[in-house]
Protein backbone atom coordinates (compact mmCIF):
# COMPACT_ATOMS: atom_id res chain seq x y z
CA UNK A 1 0.00 0.00 0.00
CA UNK A 2 1.41 3.39 -1.02
CA UNK A 3 1.73 6.18 1.50
CA UNK A 4 -0.78 8.98 0.95
CA UNK A 5 0.59 12.53 0.93
CA UNK A 6 -1.48 15.72 0.91
CA UNK A 7 0.17 18.65 -0.89
CA UNK A 8 -1.38 22.04 -0.14
CA UNK A 9 -0.27 25.13 -2.03
CA UNK A 10 -2.24 27.92 -3.69
CA UNK A 11 0.14 27.85 -6.69
CA UNK A 12 -1.18 25.27 -9.16
CA UNK A 13 2.22 24.81 -10.83
CA UNK A 14 3.91 24.01 -7.51
CA UNK A 15 1.13 21.54 -6.64
CA UNK A 16 1.56 19.81 -9.99
CA UNK A 17 5.38 19.72 -9.73
CA UNK A 18 5.19 18.22 -6.25
CA UNK A 19 2.47 15.78 -7.29
CA UNK A 20 4.55 14.54 -10.24
CA UNK A 21 7.72 14.28 -8.12
CA UNK A 22 5.98 12.32 -5.37
CA UNK A 23 4.01 10.06 -7.70
CA UNK A 24 7.27 9.14 -9.46
CA UNK A 25 8.45 7.93 -6.04
CA UNK A 26 5.38 5.72 -5.68
CA UNK A 27 3.36 7.89 -3.30
CA UNK A 28 -0.37 8.46 -3.64
CA UNK A 29 -0.81 12.24 -3.82
CA UNK A 30 -3.80 14.38 -2.93
CA UNK A 31 -3.74 18.13 -3.56
CA UNK A 32 -5.49 21.14 -2.09
CA UNK A 33 -5.36 24.81 -3.09
CA UNK A 34 -5.82 26.23 0.42
CA UNK A 35 -6.04 25.33 4.07
CA UNK A 36 -9.82 24.93 4.12
CA UNK A 37 -9.65 22.36 1.31
CA UNK A 38 -6.75 20.67 3.13
CA UNK A 39 -8.81 20.23 6.31
CA UNK A 40 -11.60 18.65 4.26
CA UNK A 41 -9.11 16.27 2.59
CA UNK A 42 -7.56 15.35 5.94
CA UNK A 43 -10.88 14.32 7.42
CA UNK A 44 -11.98 12.49 4.27
CA UNK A 45 -8.74 10.68 3.31
CA UNK A 46 -6.50 10.80 6.44
CA UNK A 47 -3.16 11.27 4.66
CA UNK A 48 0.04 9.80 6.07
CA UNK A 49 1.88 13.12 5.69
CA UNK A 50 1.17 16.73 4.70
CA UNK A 51 3.25 19.24 2.75
CA UNK A 52 1.93 22.76 3.42
CA UNK A 53 2.67 26.19 2.01
CA UNK A 54 2.34 28.98 4.57
CA UNK A 55 0.96 31.89 2.52
CA UNK A 56 -2.42 30.86 1.16
CA UNK A 57 -5.86 32.47 0.88
CA UNK A 58 -8.76 31.68 3.26
CA UNK A 59 -6.57 29.77 5.73
CA UNK A 60 -2.80 29.97 5.98
CA UNK A 61 -0.58 26.94 6.38
CA UNK A 62 0.08 28.01 9.97
CA UNK A 63 -3.66 28.06 10.70
CA UNK A 64 -4.10 24.73 8.92
CA UNK A 65 -1.34 23.10 10.96
CA UNK A 66 -2.79 24.47 14.20
CA UNK A 67 -6.23 23.14 13.27
CA UNK A 68 -4.86 19.67 12.42
CA UNK A 69 -2.91 19.54 15.68
CA UNK A 70 -6.18 20.10 17.60
CA UNK A 71 -8.11 17.40 15.72
CA UNK A 72 -8.27 14.13 17.62
CA UNK A 73 -7.27 11.22 15.39
CA UNK A 74 -5.45 13.48 12.92
CA UNK A 75 -3.05 15.38 15.18
CA UNK A 76 -0.14 12.98 14.64
CA UNK A 77 0.02 13.42 10.86
CA UNK A 78 3.54 14.67 10.06
CA UNK A 79 3.58 18.20 8.66
CA UNK A 80 6.27 19.67 6.42
CA UNK A 81 6.12 23.39 5.71
CA UNK A 82 7.43 24.15 2.21
CA UNK A 83 7.32 27.92 1.91
CA UNK A 84 8.99 31.08 0.70
CA UNK A 85 8.74 32.54 4.22
CA UNK A 86 12.35 32.33 5.41
CA UNK A 87 12.52 34.43 8.57
CA UNK A 88 13.76 32.86 11.76
CA UNK A 89 10.52 33.94 13.50
CA UNK A 90 8.46 32.05 10.91
CA UNK A 91 10.60 28.93 11.32
CA UNK A 92 10.33 29.09 15.12
CA UNK A 93 6.58 29.69 14.95
CA UNK A 94 6.18 26.73 12.60
CA UNK A 95 8.02 24.48 15.05
CA UNK A 96 6.03 25.85 18.00
CA UNK A 97 2.67 25.06 16.38
CA UNK A 98 3.64 21.51 15.53
CA UNK A 99 5.44 21.35 12.18
CA UNK A 100 7.84 18.43 11.94
CA UNK A 101 10.05 20.10 9.33
CA UNK A 102 10.30 23.62 7.89
CA UNK A 103 11.80 23.86 4.38
CA UNK A 104 12.07 26.99 2.29
CA UNK A 105 11.59 27.60 -1.43
CA UNK A 106 13.41 27.21 -3.67
CA UNK A 107 13.81 23.70 -2.30
CA UNK A 108 16.10 20.79 -3.08
CA UNK A 109 14.01 17.88 -4.39
CA UNK A 110 16.39 15.27 -2.94
CA UNK A 111 16.24 16.92 0.50
CA UNK A 112 12.45 17.01 0.37
CA UNK A 113 12.25 13.34 -0.66
CA UNK A 114 14.71 12.37 2.08
CA UNK A 115 12.72 14.25 4.74
CA UNK A 116 9.44 12.69 3.56
CA UNK A 117 10.89 9.17 3.60
CA UNK A 118 12.38 9.73 7.07
CA UNK A 119 9.12 11.05 8.56
CA UNK A 120 7.08 8.23 7.03
CA UNK A 121 9.56 5.65 8.27
CA UNK A 122 9.42 7.13 11.80
CA UNK A 123 5.62 7.25 11.69
CA UNK A 124 5.51 3.63 10.51
CA UNK A 125 7.74 2.58 13.39
CA UNK A 126 5.51 4.34 15.90
CA UNK A 127 2.45 2.65 14.39
CA UNK A 128 4.10 -0.78 14.56
CA UNK A 129 5.17 -0.20 18.17
CA UNK A 130 1.59 0.72 19.15
CA UNK A 131 0.24 -2.38 17.39
CA UNK A 132 2.80 -4.55 19.23
CA UNK A 133 1.77 -3.08 22.59
CA UNK A 134 -1.90 -3.66 21.82
CA UNK A 135 -1.18 -7.22 20.66
CA UNK A 136 0.71 -7.93 23.86
CA UNK A 137 -2.21 -6.58 25.89
CA UNK A 138 -4.67 -8.70 23.90
CA UNK A 139 -2.55 -11.87 24.08
CA UNK A 140 -1.63 -11.65 27.74
CA UNK A 141 -3.96 -13.06 30.33
CA UNK A 142 -3.44 -11.78 33.82
CA UNK A 143 -3.99 -14.10 36.75
CA UNK A 144 -4.82 -12.70 40.16
Q: What tags apply to this protein structure?
A:
5 strands; five-stranded parallel β-sheet; Rossmann fold; globular; alpha/beta; 144 residues
Task: Give the SSE layout.
Elements: E1 4-8, H1 12-24, E2 28-32, H2 35-45, E3 49-52, H3 61-69, E4 79-83, H4 88-96, E5 101-104, H5 109-139
Characterize the structure shown.
The chain has a 5-stranded parallel beta sheet, with helices on both faces. The termini are far apart. It has one domain (4-139): Response regulator (Rossmann fold, 3-Layer(aba) Sandwich). Helix 2 runs parallel beside helix 3 (61-69). With 144 residues, it is of the alpha/beta class. The chain has 5 helices and 5 strands; from the N terminus they run E-H-E-H-E-H-E-H-E-H. The chain has helices spanning 12-24, 35-45, 61-69, 88-96, 109-139; strands spanning 4-8, 28-32, 49-52, 79-83, 101-104.
Amino acid sequence: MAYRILVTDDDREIRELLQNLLEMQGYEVLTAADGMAAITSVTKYKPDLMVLDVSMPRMSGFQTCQTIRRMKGYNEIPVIFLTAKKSEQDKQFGARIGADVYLTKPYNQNELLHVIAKLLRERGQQHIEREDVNKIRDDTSFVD
